[in-house]
Amino acid sequence: MCKVIAIANQKGGVGKTTTAVNLGVGIANAGKKVLMIDADPQGSLTISMGFQEPDKLTDTLFNIITMVANDEDMEYGYGILHLDKVDLIPANIELSTAEISLSSALCRESILKSYIEEIRPDYDYIVIDCMPSLGMLTVNALTCADSVLIPVQAAYLPVKGLQQLIKTIHAVKRQLNKSLKIEGILLTMVDGRTTYAKDIVSQVNEVYGRNMPVFPIEIPLSVRASETSAAAKSIYDYDPKGKAANAYEALTKEVLANGSN
Ligand code: ADP
Ligand code: MG
Fold it and tell me: Which ligand gives the minimal distance to the CA of 228?
């Protein structure tokens, strides 16, 4: 059974894309069939997967969403790129106009879901890299997901912003996707040398840990990790022995242990 995991947080720069890449590739390294979906018009996931100029791509998530929203016929597997380890549905700046076509579409919250339901049998895991907003695209991702993984940067403001995200997740769960689960909160860019980062980690565990899972693994602050997207490599290929690779490997194991559906 395929499991769909949305990586979401309306705050930018918290490690969503880095986590999507290294979780997706990590799961693929474990022998599973993985599809990654770039649901951010900035196309960072697309760039990280080796497409330096996403705006030159013609078949992207934008086309898929527009076709489904307009009830147009689509070739099976349209828009899916087959890369070395994973498959990818790329995105580029065009996706920023999809919110508009979505807002007038019938069943606008479940456009992505109706597409994913068709291709689900082809994969063990589908990982969606969400954009930094709680708009219609992110709601679409949450509506088709089995679980949501929330990267949180170990800093004061991002931790505060979590409340709004959790509210949205609860609203989607109530109205659109009853079986949506929280895979876990993942602390990222943790600078283990500072007591400040340690305070944030214990604060997140204290405030949220009672009501939802917080991963026991933290992603350390790592210059090597920050270089991976420009290098278009996963952390396992870029710095396999480093602390970030270790952490993402452990995260992958944890997510696989959480089971499929
Ligand atoms: P988001 O998708 O939430 O905007 P990104 O994954 O793009 O976040 O990360 C934001 C920035 O932080 C990027 O420049 C990225 O390379 C860097 N980064 C991500 N993870 C780490 C890490 N563990 N340590 C240091 N820098 C990181
Ligand atoms: Mg991103």
Answer: 1
Q: What pLDDT sits at residue 157?
A: 67
Assess whether pLDDT exceeds 90 at residue 180. Answer: yes
- Domain 3-258 fold is Rossmann fold (3.40.50)
**Nearest to residue 149, comparing CAs of 211, 90, 220, 213?**
213
Is-contact 62 113, C-beta < 8 A? no
Task: Indicate the average pLDDT of the chain.
Answer: 94
Q: Is the pLDDT of residue 103 over 90?
A: no
CB 134 within 8 A of CB 10: yes
19-53 pLDDT tens trace? 999 999 999 999 999 999 999 999 999 999 999 99
Q: Whole-model pTM above 0.85? A: yes
Distance 229 CA to ligand 1 centre (A): 9
Q: Among 11, 46, 217, 226, which residue has the most ligand 1 atoms within 8 Å of its CB, making it the best to mutate?
A: 226
- Encoded tokens for 156: 């004061």
List Cβ neighbours of 192 (8 Å cut-off, separation of 6 or more): 198, 218, 220, 221
Burial-class residue 72 by CB neighbours within 10 Å (0-12, 13-18, 19+).
exposed
